[in-house]
Amino acid sequence: IENLKQLVLQYKLNFMDRLASVLPAVRGGGKDEGVHFEPLSKPGPPEVHTVTHNSVTVQVSPPISATRYIIEYREEEVQGSTCSKLSFGIPAMKMTNRTIMLLGATGSGKTTLINGMINYILGVEWEDESRFKLIHEETNRTQAESQTSEITAYQIHYIEGFRVPYSLTIVDTPGFGDTRGIGQDKIVTQKIRDFFSDKNGIISLDAVCFVVQSALARLTHTQKYIFDSILSIFGKDIADNIVVLVTFADGKSAPVLEAIREADILCAKDKIYNPLHFKFNNSVLFASNNGGKGVSDQDDFDRMFWRMGSVGMTTFFTHLSTMQTRSLQLTKEVLAVRHRLEVTVEGLQPKMKVGLMILNELEQTHEALERHKHCIEQNKNFEYEVEFTEAVKEDISGTGICITNCQACHTTCHYPCKIPNDNDKKGCWAMDNKGNCRICPGKCVWSVHFTQKYRWEYKMRKEKRTYEDLKRQFEDAKGKEMCAEEVVKQLQKKYKDVQKEFLQLIENLSRTLKRLKEIALRPDPLRAPDYIDLMIQAEEHEAKPGYLDRIR
């Protein structure tokens, strides 16, 4: 047994020597830099351990006895990239590379899981005197805020002696659901969208990994929203590559699996139709191992959790090697189509709100005519009050936000817009392939659209009107005099015409969403009644004057 231990130790030392020889090329250090990297043979002082003379040091306090080392990597600068790219080791030309993306809520254990992965890959055992960190947590953030603020791609190039037979790219994402609220979650989702749209980004993916705590018995509405928001990014072909990484796991069934089933989260399934999942427990990753010689009950307990973590890593990385690599081409198409639809929806929403307001105005007018029926019969004039919509300019100068306004229709067609130059407005997302606007009422050509210092908003205003003015309005439109009965009929006809136009907008929106259903993993298709329900909820939330009448 002793001879076997010596053989294993010698193997580890040889591996670390090979690892050390690579570091100068990675960090740009001198040819003798590798001699400083001897964590298994020469541990440093008990308080502070240093990988090399130019690396980050980690303060270690009792009772932690294992030395912590920060993995040094080089940052690759890619112009226009939407993420940080950090590389460890030297690229191997003929070596397979696997790419995984990790997504999870703040506090899910994602950072510790990634650090656990790097220790597993490097072959660290419980008895070893060293531990490694790929990610070092910031100390100036609260536990309720995500430690990761940007998307980071860690490229771990294969070195002989790795526990996995391939290079690995770990895409780490900011945590969801921290104390900054749903607005921050939307920012994170947009960052992930931008990452996949990046022409310099990754072109394929092996696994999308949702990191969740084992004890999570139910998904909140916010968590469900987050899952759906992320799933809506991907194409349908990614479904079988979505897996669940369960942290803080023990030997029992994880309650979070039932929560995922109840929430109908799309992911790969195992043989008994459970969400395909892998259990991890990294609670003792940086715990004291008493130099690997502990014999107490606590040492046995910690060693058991270490083994549990190692088994989870082995199972996951073995399965990862069998997963089919997916091209992100369909995902990129989903993102492009979804963006076009979002612009269309954003443009249609104000038009639909205006439609609701006009319907409300006509209803008030009709009610006024009913109340003053006796005056109409006696051919008397009367006054009544209605709420109507008025287009107003909202100043956005100084905000740094670009906009696309239609000068002919006095409509905001795209806000915010990424194209500030008026001569390039043909490339605005609001324009179709022929250069005509999808949004403004006149479907005007792109050349009458401009970046301006204001956006068009529609606001409610009260106004007193007379029956004579209303009667004259309809008579001028028809070119003939009208009796009271004809005025009422014209008002009813106008109401039906506006109502028909409003419902047509809803139907058009539903039709445009069908393309997403064909290609997207989570297309969020809306039928007309669904969208009306959402608008009612929005009206109730904003509670603007007259909203009770508009949602009737």
Automatic annotation (TrEMBL):
CDD domains: FN3, Ras_like_GTPase. Pfam families: Septin, Stonustoxin_helical. One of its GO terms (molecular function) is molecular adaptor activity. One of its GO terms (biological process) is cytoskeleton-dependent cytokinesis. Residues 460-519 form a coiled coil. Gene3D superfamilies: P-loop containing nucleotide triphosphate hydrolases (3.40.50.300). Keywords: Coiled coil, GTP-binding, Nucleotide-binding. Residues 98-179 form the Septin-type G domain. GO terms for cellular component: cell division site; microtubule cytoskeleton; septin complex; septin ring. Residues 1-36 form the Stonustoxin-like helical domain. It comes from the Eukaryota. InterPro entries: FN3_dom (IPR003961), FN3_sf (IPR036116), G_SEPTIN_dom (IPR030379), P-loop_NTPase (IPR027417), Stonustoxin-like_helical (IPR048997). The keyword ATP-binding does not apply. Belongs to the TRAFAC class TrmE-Era-EngA-EngB-Septin-like GTPase superfamily. Septin GTPase family. This is Uncharacterized protein.
